[in-house]
Amino acid sequence: MKVREARLTDLKNLSVLFNSYRMFYGKKSDLKVAEEFLRSRIEEKDSKIFVCDFNNELSGFVQLYPIFSSTRVSKYWLLNDLYVDVKKRGKGYSKLLIEKSKELVVESKACGMMLETEKSNIIGNKLYPSSGFKKNELCNFYEWIPS
After folding, report:
1. Letter string b/e over residues 109-127, b meaning 16 or more CB atoms within 10 A of that residue's CB
2. Beta-strand (E) ranges in the chain?
3. Which CATH number covers residue 63?
4. pTM of the entire structure?
5. Structural domain boundaries, residue 71
6. Edge-to-edge, what's the strand order for the sheet holding 2-5?
7. DSSP single-letter state for residue 64
């Protein structure tokens, strides 16, 4: 098993994983939308996507977006998406993807990495603290969505 950066040649397999990830969060299946979105991210290089690759079979991915902290005057990474195929869970792939994400933070001289997950995500809410993430109890998370 190796964790590496996603390539355009991964699009077909990665899109299937990404589509499953979106369905996990209640979105309708749409492989075309998944592929177009991922193609844009890879071509425009506006995110980092790492995949778990075992003999050219992708079993999971993580996607991170760069953001910036004005108070820390530094880059900060948003771990936005993390998914492992249901049939491949329990093998430590999520932790491998998180470790690769931590390497990105260090290599890019960023001040840290943040994420959010739904309170109902029992697996994620156990995984992240066990991977060294600390829950920020000092802040409120607000969101604005146009109607």
Report:
1. ebeebebeeeeeeeebeeb
2. 2-5, 48-54, 57-69, 74-84, 113-114
3. 3.40.630.30
4. 0.93
5. 2-130
6. 2-5, 48-54, 57-69, 74-84, 113-114
7. E
To which H or E segment does residue 44 belong?
Answer: helix 31-44
**φ, ψ at 113 (rounded to 5°):** -145, 140
Q: How far, rounded to the nearest angstrom, does the alpha carbon of residue 147 sit from its chain's CA centroid?
A: 27
Q: Contact at 8 Å (CB) between 93 and 110? A: no
Amino acid at 93: Y
Q: What pLDDT, in 10s, does the model give residues 41-92?
A: 999 999 999 999 998 899 999 999 999 999 999 999 999 999 999 999 999 9
Residue 135 lies in a domain: no
Phi-psi region of 24 (alpha: psi -120 to 50; beta: other; left: phi over 0): alpha
- Beta-carbon count within 10 A of 10 CB: 20
**Residue with the two structure tokens 């003999």:** 55
First to last CA, the chain: 44
Question: What is the token pair recorded at 83?
Answer: 């998914």
Tokens standing for residue 28: 């309708």
Total number of domains constituting the chain: 1
CA dihedral over 101, 107, 108, 113, signed as positive or negative? positive
